[in-house]
Write a structure and sequence with these properties.
This protein has eight helices and seven strands. By secondary structure, it is an alpha/beta fold. Helix 5 links the parallel strand 2 and strand 3. The model has no long low-confidence stretch (mean pLDDT about 85).
Length: about 220
């Protein structure tokens, strides 16, 4: 199995560098019109659903360590830190996302618990293991998630949480068209439930749960 090419990583990072404030606004609603908020509710409701499910799955946070791969603007890190996590590490291809995350965790008083880096998880030297590892909204941009999932499995104590865009879904066609027209330099990939299960098992997770949301699969693996 192969990791994403350097060009693919660069393209994903560049896309989210450009769209960092707009993506963050999906969570915060700040600086957007009522019409844009409506668009967010219609097209991006799974983004809020996956956050709520992740917080529910991370149910033993007191003193826990969390690695958020593709941490974006730090929304998950902030919420998990507020709930008692003692060590927070966030990685993202996009420097603009890391800058937003730095501001978010600092404003929340969590900077002393947090390490943030603009880097590739596969190249990142992991120090020890983490109670929870997250890859939420990451595998949209990986043709082959296998190597990343394997590394996650090797460093996870309690649970790994990942999401995958659904292959057989009416929203898939909408997203394909949107990316073809507006996000040409950042290809997106889709997965069947069976493939998600196979990937999780092959990575080394012994317990695997896969839940279908509106247009994504929400997967939880335990070592």
């Amino acid at each position: 199995m192969s990791a994403p090419s350097p060009r693919a990583k660069k393209d994903v990072g560049a896309h989210f560098d450009r769209s960092a404030p707009a993506f963050d606004a999906i969570y915060t609603g700040e600086g957007v019109s009522p019409l844009r908020r409506l668009v967010h509710r219609v097209f991006f409701h799974d983004i809020h659903w996956r956050l709520a499910l992740t917080l529910a799955e991370c149910d033993a946070l007191a003193g826990a360590s969390v690695l958020d791969i593709g941490c974006g603007s730090g929304v998950y890190l902030e919420e998990l830190g507020r709930r008692g996590a003692a060590r927070l590490v966030g990685l993202d291809f996009a420097p603009a996302m890391i800058e937003l995350a730095e501001r978010r965790v600092a404003a929340a008083g969590l900077a002393h618990l947090t390490e943030l880096r603009s880097t590739d998880f596969l190249a990142y030297r992991v120090d020890g293991r983490f109670d929870y590892t997250l890859a939420v909204g990451v595998f949209d941009y990986f043709r082959d998630p296998g190597p990343l999932l394997q590394k996650m499995a090797s460093i996870t104590r309690q649970k790994a949480i990942a999401t995958f865009p659904q292959l057989w879904n009416p929203w898939t066609a909408v997203r394909r068209v949107r990316y073809a027209l507006a996000v040409r330099d950042c290809p997106v990939h889709f997965f069947s439930r069976a493939r998600v299960r196979r990937l999780m098992w092959a990575a080394g997770f012994r317990e695997v749960r896969v839940r279908a949301l509106t247009n994504i699969f929400f997967a939880v693996g335990a070592p």
